[in-house]
Amino acid sequence: MKKLSIIILPIFLLFFYIFSAMYSFHQVHKSIYYNDKQLSKNYIEWDEVKKNFKDFFNANLLDKMSNEKEFKDLGELGILVTGLASKFVDYAIDTYINPEGLSLLIQKSDKKSEIPEPNLGTLIGGISIMNFDGLSSFHVNLETDGEEIPVHFKRIGIKWKVVEIEFPENIFDEMKLN
Q: 157 by DSSP, 3-state: which?
């Protein structure tokens, strides 16, 4: 009996570990499909997502502006403009990167119909696109318009939460075109 429990316990823990990740990913899927703000609050670490967005956008903004000839010609005034632009980005991210902003984005999205309905098949199938980065993190690569967008999850207690969304480096070029 003792030998059996020594074998069964690790298998049970491994099953629980993988299933908890699959379940959390499925809950994020449901929060988007059903536009459920409460689910997104439970399974997205909004403060960390905001911080990562700010870091990404500010670094890219600074890089783009420092490479522009017009800003180099402005000298110290260019630095001031870059700082103001950075503050504007921070304000915009604080305003729109939250459950209400996600809900608004989902409502206005023309790709809403492309999201599959959450069901047992999507719960179980989620394991096929999950890439474990370590014992406490995994990511999924979501494809949109031919580009992959990695969404990173981190284990917090027994739940897994979205902590980062990586956007393509050329997102600013695409914004400029629109």
A: coil
Do 138 and 131 form a contact (C-beta atoms < 8 A)? Answer: yes
pLDDT of 54: 85
- Chain segment 12-68, per-residue pLDDT in tens: 888 899 999 999 999 999 999 998 999 999 999 999 999 988 888 878 777 776 666
Asked whether 158 and 136 are in contact (CB, 8 A), the reply is: no
Pairing of strands 147-156, 137-144: antiparallel
Boundaries of domain holding 110:
2-177
In which residue are the tokens 């959450």 written? 118
CB 49 within 8 A of CB 164: yes
- Residues 164 and 133: beta-carbon distance below 8 Å: no
